[in-house]
Amino acid sequence: MGSDPDRRFRMTFTAGAEHIDFMGHVNNAVWLQWAQDIATAHWEAVADPAHVEAYLWVVTRHEIDYRGNIAEGESVIGATRIEQPPTGARFERLIDFMRAEGGKPLVSVRSTWAMIARDTGRLQRVPQDVAKRFLPAE
After folding, report:
1. DSSP per position, the chain
2. Pfam families from the xrefs (predicted)?
């Protein structure tokens, strides 16, 4: 787990028997769960603890491109990043899942997330001080 100067955050995921579908590879729903898992871990690792307490995130859209898959026992590295500043309460998160030995992404996810104020349960414009921890360095 970790991040780099471009603010990409990485995690390794290994396919267990519970992740495998009737085709013998990771089920589509598992890729979405892993996308949510890395997004949550990124938020908790990088955000100011006060922001973690004040805000929640919900997905408003997922778009997934499948170019390959993995079988039970195989691992991928998930790398997530946010390239553009938020628009109001929303921002776009990009996630690529690649084999550990490198190469092109097997699965790519583009998700739109919306910020919610924990105390009101309402959409909240993403404050600049929250966003800056996740955007590429200028």
Report:
1. -EE-TT--EEEEEE--GGGB-TTSSB-HHHHHHHHHHHHHHHHHHHS-HHHHHHEEEEEEEEEEEES----TT-EEEEEEE--S--BTTEEEEEEEEEETT--S-SEEEEEEEEEEETTT-SB----HHHHTTTSPP-
2. 4HBT_2
Boundaries of every domain in the chain: 2-131
- Identify the residue whose tokens are 């898992």: 37
Q: What is the pTM of this model?
A: 0.90
Residues with Cβ within 8 Å of residue 84, at least 6 apart in sequence: 91, 92, 135
Query: What topology does CATH give the domain 2-131?
Result: Thiol Ester Dehydrase; Chain A (3.10.129)
pLDDT given for residue 6 in this prediction: 61
Q: Which residues contact 29 (CB under 8 A, 6 or more apart)?
A: none
